[in-house]
């Protein structure tokens, strides 16, 4: 990589996304106080961890991931539980990481893969490929080239950090990292973590923006963008894909932050306080938490007003009386 041979071309679509994202970050910082919403910040970090691990085939549900992080006993594969604990430890160090320090990268890989792989915290010694399920998208560069490729990548990032917008620079790094595939395991998790580190250094609010959850929703698009860039020899498609996902998730965060609870009854506020975001609850589960006995009281004073205010949605909206009906906090 060099100034004369950049790994991408600036496009109008990229600039449009950069402008939109910057505007939304400004709205979050100046019109809403995310610092005053610790529950939302913590929930979004848990969503990031759950989604990043789910992309790598970790089968634990969002609720199970939350329980592991909260120190509760969870029935599941010990490897998957360890992945959650490691990821939580790594994400907890985001603000102290130098994204331009290769030693920090290896150290965080050691945290992310602790007790999981033999080659933890060091570059791979064997050959690896990038897979989407059982499909091999491409074979990574030979292991003997990895140290030089990673040094070149970090040197290039250091040289370009004052010339290229952080949103684009971090996306370039994400793609190039995936292409090099420097570790025997944990490459996807590390690429997404480091992307978050870069963006957090630019705007601190990104520590609590669950970009990973948006990528997980469009996982096929994520891998397709990577594969297309391998064919093109440039990272344009991937940059545009990632910027689109960041722009979308920021729109969702703004909706969350702008929800006005003024005028809501104490009943609804109490119910919302005991519900976690993104987790489906049955009416009985919510009533147990609220220590309610009457379903009629629950529907009239709690659930119906919350649904009417678009603060809670049904999982089966076309069958409101279904015995399998559950409710999700928006």
Automatic annotation (TrEMBL):
Per UniProt, residues of the Fido domain are 100-244
Source organism's superkingdom? Bacteria
InterPro entries cross-referenced by the UniProt entry: Fic-like_C (IPR049514), Fido (IPR003812), Fido-like_dom_sf (IPR036597), Fido_containing (IPR040198)
Query: What Pfam families does the entry give?
Result: Fic, Fic-like_C
Q: Which SUPFAM superfamilies match?
A: Fic-like
Which PANTHER family does the entry link to? FIDO DOMAIN-CONTAINING PROTEIN, FIDO DOMAIN-CONTAINING PROTEIN DDB_G0283145
Q: What is this protein called?
A: Fic family protein
Species for this entry: Aequitasia blattaphilus
